[in-house]
Amino acid sequence: MKITKSGRHRLIATACAALALGQGNAVAAQPLEPAASHIERTGATQGLSRMPTPLGNAEIDYPDLAKRAGIGGRVTIAVFVDESGRPTKTQVASREPMFLDIFDDASRRAAMGIRYTPGLDENGKPTAMWVNQPFKYALHGETPPRCTVNTAAHYPEAARAAGTEAVVGVFVNLDANGWPAKSGMAIVGRTPTNASLFDEPAKAALLKIRCRPANRGGLNVPSVAVVDIAFTPPVDKLPETPAQD
């Protein structure tokens, strides 16, 4: 089944509605305010004598859906900055979690609103270049859930011969104690995109662990999360290296 951006957002919207209806958590219906927005350190993607530097803070719109779900994350945007320090185009460079794209549009808009001191080449001349601009999303008084998944016992037998590595993104509902719920669990992304044989092992591995629960105002609360679950081939099952003559 094709994994779409709209499908991922529908999952989060449905979970928000369930939390707001009061499934053991009246606080969930009261969205927290975003923490003060700030620009993290910019990183250049090529050699230069001076990298572009942001002037002031960015205007970041915290997506309402993410706010209601109590979801945070980090997005790094690649920004092309011209010789005058003006951003002209953007693309998503990376995300944490990898498959949580709910902050992409807000981050790209924020990146286009930043002015920079121009970057300088080796001769001190203003030059256009790509830079990596991170944006962090967090809510006041909210500690997001954290899930650490061990996949060693769940690596699929069918992938052992090739020694395939994969990452699967799983959307999950967590109770106030951090236990994942099988109901509503869904695959929201994977890399490689055709590595669907890791989907069920990823779900099984997640259901075996207890996550650190979300905490709001000093209380553990039910929450939703997108968890990146990585698979690496067991060391004793790596593909053999051909013998040298």
How many domains? 2
| Percent range of helical residues | 10-25%
Order of H and E elements: HEEHEEHEEEEEEEHEEE
CATH T-level fold name of the largest domain: TolA/TonB C-terminal domain
Biggest sheet descriptor: 4 strands, antiparallel
Stretches with pLDDT under 50, minimum 5 residues? 23-32
- Residue share in β-strands: 25-35%
Tally of DSSP helical segments? 4
Cα separation of the termini: 46 Å
- Find the CATH superfamily of the largest domain: TonB
Radius of gyration: 21 Å
- Briefly note the structural class of the backbone: alpha+beta
Shape designation: globular
Please, what is the average pLDDT? 84
Spatial order of the strands in the main sheet? 1-8-3-4
Describe this structure in words.
It is a single-pass membrane protein. Residues 47-146 form the TonB C-terminal domain. Residues 1-28 form the signal peptide. It is a single chain. The chain is α+β, with helices and mostly antiparallel strands and 245 residues long. It has 2 domains: 33-137, TolA/TonB C-terminal domain (2-Layer Sandwich), CATH 3.30.2420.10; 142-237, TolA/TonB C-terminal domain (2-Layer Sandwich). Helices cover 16% and strands 31% of the residues. It has 4 helices and 14 strands. A 4-stranded antiparallel β-sheet has the order 1-8-3-4, covered by helices on one side. The chain starts with a helix and ends in a 14-residue tail after the last strand. The model is unreliable at 23-32 (pLDDT under 50).
